[in-house]
Every structure is written in structure tokens, then in C-alpha cells.
């Protein structure tokens, strides 16, 4: 599926109230979202969310998120307390704040001369130095006071007390327990900046986040994202996965950066593919009437949908996941908006009716 031409928007773009895509004509279709992590590439999912909100034909009941997906999820849910435009504004302001913080603190950036020369972020001198440093020193040595500018951005963007009390969206945020190696999923009633920081905690960059005596790393190691909370804790049968890490790549990686990028993508997709295999198994049993009637009530026929960024993000390196330049983030948002618009055009009719993705063919 090819993305449409990118569309430039502002945070004050109007939400349609009449015509095609209007929620005033037909009831909204209720769905769940599963948002992958991927650092700055999460701005692609921002674009998807923004287009869904602008389109107005879907209602998002629950979101399962990991890492950058957890950030999009919690900012979306916080903004939705004020309505769809509130969510659009909140997402825009959050990603702009991420960019502003990156200008101050990030070492993954291009200097003015490199920008003028048209160099890519992986060619940046600062980026090369940054990689050398993190490969030789742990965050416990480099950052003993555990400074993390993301904490300040999150707490300025989300009122977590209000979110816990008034969220209209069911949230499920995945982390990895460092001690046990198991996934730990936090729900809406447990939301805090520490939960989101834990879900996004890359162990080579930040100290493990301690919550109630347990230490947590990035949730992507055990669930990117996890799907089972959406199956067991929501009424909607539809799950739309917004993929950030490409599952397929046609070119053989040969450079060190390319190999590292591909290993990262495969690793962070493994747990998701295992869950999709289990869902396919249950779908197959239900479709072939292989379960006795008394057992059928214990299973939910999940309708699966997939927004895959394989081709849309295939030109980006692993280094760009830490690149927070505002023009870069806007480009990713516009890619997400364009892809979501095309996806809705072809797949909206399937929502609440049938799966729009063949799990066996696409993932297994």
C-alpha cells in the first residue's frame, strides 16, 4: 500500500462535521489501537492518530502502547478529556516540546554545516561520538543523577492526576521487569510519568525506572505492544496495530548501522508476532467450529487490522530514532497522516465487520 502525498497541517486544523467522514451521519465505529515504540519514529503514529481524529468516524476505546507508543497513548488520552481537538492539540504540543528539549540536550543532531551539506543524521559527528560513548559507558556512569528531560516534558504535557480520574480511553502501558524478565502492564488507574518513562527506558541510555520497589526497562523487549489487555478488557473486537518497526526489508543490511537497525527491528517485533500467532490459532479454531459450546464463551473473535510502516519508514536509519529535529518530526507526522488516510479509504468498511489483514500470510 502506498502512502498518499504528504499533507501539511497545523494543530488548529478543523475537524469535519459534515459530509464524508462525518460522525454526525452514522455512529462511530469503536476500535482499539496498539501502538508500537520506535523513538522519534513514533511521530508517524502521531500522524495516524491525528488523521483518525480529523476523520471523525472511529471511536478509540482502548490503547495498548510501548515506549513512544505509550507517550502517544497517554498524551492522546489526556487530550481526549477535552474532546478530539483537545487530543490533536495535545499531541502537537507534546511532539513540539520533545523537539525543543532535543535542541537543548540531545547529542543526536546535525550541526549547521552538516545540515547545509545535506548530510544524514547517521553521518553526524556528534552522533558518531554519542554511539562511541554509550557503547563504552553505562548510564549509571554517564548520568549518575539520572537526568531525563523527557520527564519534564511529560509532566508539562499531561496532568496525570486528572488522567487517572477522568480518562475516556482505557490505557495499557507495557514495561519489562528487569528482575523477572516478564512484561508488566500498567492500566489507566496506575498512570504516572514514571510508568511512561519505564515503558521508554532504553537500558543503554537511562537507568532502570523504579516503581514500587521493582525496576523496569523498555516494554518493547517483552511486548511491542502487548495485545492481550485489549482482548480481555475492552468491548470492541477490533484491534488496529500501528507498526513503527518494519517487519520486512528487501535489502540485505551490510553496514554496521544497517545491521544494528535490522537486529533492533527484528528483536522488537518478536513478541508481537508471537501474540499474533496465538490470535490466529484461536481465530482458526472459532472459524472451523473446533470448540465445544461451553468453551466458546471464553474466547473472543478478535478482528485484526494493520497499519504497517515497512515501506514508508524504510529509508530511515536506527540513528534517526533519536533525532528530534522539528522538520523531521513533522515529516514523519505527515507520512502517518497520508498513510492513515489511504488506509481508511480502503479498510474503514472492514471495521466492526471482519479482519482486514490475513495474519497467516502477513505475519506468520
- Distance between the first and last residues' Cα: 19 Å
- Compute the number of helices: 14
Helix fraction, binned, reads 40-55%
Quote the average pLDDT: 87
Q: Largest sheet at a glance?
A: 8 strands, mixed
Q: Which ranges are low-confidence, i.e. pLDDT below 50, for 5 or more consecutive residues?
A: 1-24
The count of DSSP E runs of length 2 or more, i.e. the number of strands, is 8
Helices and strands, in N-to-C order? EHEHHHHHHHEEHEEHEHHEHH
The helix-and-strand class reads: alpha/beta
How much strand?
A: 5-15%
Description of the structure:
The protein has 364 residues and is of the alpha/beta class. The chain has helices at residues 43-55, 68-80, 84-105, 112-116, 125-134, 139-142, 149-157, 160-166, 193-199, 228-233, 256-287, 293-296, 326-347, 359-362, and strands spanning 29-35, 58-65, 170-177, 183-187, 209-211, 214-218, 238-242, 303-307. Strands 1, 2, 3, 4, 5, 6, 7 and 8 form an eight-stranded mixed β-sheet that branches. A hairpin with a 2-residue loop joins strand 5 and strand 6. The longest helix is centred in the C-terminal third of the chain and has 32 residues, at 256-287. 44% of the residues are buried.
Amino acid at each position: 500500500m502506498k502512502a498518499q502525498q504528504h499533507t501539511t497541517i497545523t494543530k488548529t486544523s478543523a475537524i469535519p462535521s459534515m459530509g464524508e467522514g462525518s460522525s454526525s451521519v452514522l455512529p462511530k465505529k469503536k476500535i482499539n489501537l496498539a501502538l508500537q515504540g520506535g523513538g522519534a519514529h513514533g511521530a508517524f503514529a502521531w500522524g495516524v492518530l491525528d488523521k483518525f481524529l480529523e476523520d471523525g468516524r472511529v471511536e478509540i476505546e482502548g490503547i495498548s502502547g510501548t515506549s513512544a507508543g505509550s507517550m502517544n497513548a497517554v498524551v492522546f488520552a489526556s487530550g481526549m478529556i477535552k474532546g478530539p481537538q483537545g487530543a490533536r492539540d495535545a499531541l502537537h504540543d507534546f511532539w513540539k516540546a520533545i523537539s525543543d528539549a532535543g535542541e537543548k540536550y540531545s547529542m543526536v543532531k546535525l550541526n549547521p554545516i552538516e545540515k547545509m551539506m545535506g548530510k544524514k543524521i547517521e553521518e553526524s559527528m556528534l552522533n558518531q561520538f554519542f554511539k562511541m560513548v554509550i557503547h563504552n559507558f553505562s548510564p549509571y556512569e554517564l548520568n549518575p543523577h539520572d537526568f531525563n528531560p523527557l520527564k519534564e516534558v511529560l509532566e508539562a504535557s499531561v496532568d496525570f492526576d486528572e488522567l487517572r480520574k477522568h480518562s475516556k480511553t482505557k490505557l495499557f502501558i507495557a514495561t519489562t521487569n528487569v528482575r523477572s524478565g516478564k512484561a508488566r502492564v500498567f492500566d489507566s488507574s496506575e498512570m504516572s510519568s514514571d510508568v511512561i518513562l519505564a515503558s521508554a527506558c532504553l537500558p543503554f541510555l537511562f537507568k532502570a525506572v523504579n516503581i514500587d520497589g521493582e525496576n523496569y526497562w523498555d516494554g518493547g523487549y517483552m511486548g511491542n505492544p502487548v495485545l492481550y489487555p485489549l482482548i480481555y478488557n475492552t468491548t470492541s473486537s477490533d484491534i488496529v496495530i500501528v507498526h513503527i518497526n518494519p517487519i520486512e526489508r528487501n535489502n540485505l543490511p551490510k553496514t554496521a548501522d544497517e545491521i544494528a537497525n535490522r537486529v533492533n527491528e527484528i528483536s522488537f517485533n518478536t513478541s508481537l508476532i508471537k501474540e499474533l500467532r496465538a490470535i490466529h490459532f484461536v481465530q482458526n479454531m472459532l472459524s472451523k467450529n473446533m470448540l465445544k459450546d461451553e468453551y466458546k464463551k471464553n474466547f473472543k473473535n478478535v478482528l485484526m487490522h494493520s497499519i504497517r510502516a515497512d515501506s514508508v519508514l524504510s529509508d530511515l536509519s536506527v540513528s534517526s530514532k533519536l533525532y528530534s529535529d522539528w522538520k523531521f518530526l513533522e515529516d514523519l507526522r505527515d507520512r502517518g497522516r497520508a498513510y492513515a488516510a489511504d488506509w481508511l479509504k480502503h479498510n474503514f468498511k472492514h471495521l466492526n465487520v471482519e479482519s482486514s489483514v490475513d495474519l497467516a500470510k502477513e505475519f506468520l
